[in-house]
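User: Thanks for the earlier help. One more: Down syndrome cell adhesion molecule-like protein Dscam2. Can you show the sequence and predicted structure together?

Assistant: Of course, both are below.
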Amino acid sequence: MEEELDATVMYAQEGRVSTLTIKELAYKHNGNYTCATTNDVATGSFSAILTVK
């Protein structure tokens, strides 16, 4: 089930750093998060598992 998040995504191109900030993090936010990107040259993705205790 996908849910709309009150979140902010930040990406720094030179440092190649992506940040996902979830406001009011709760147990219900546990799960697999994937960031996918596409441009004229390539596509890419990164997945991470978030565990809230």
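User: Great, one quick takeaway?

Assistant: The mean pLDDT is 83.
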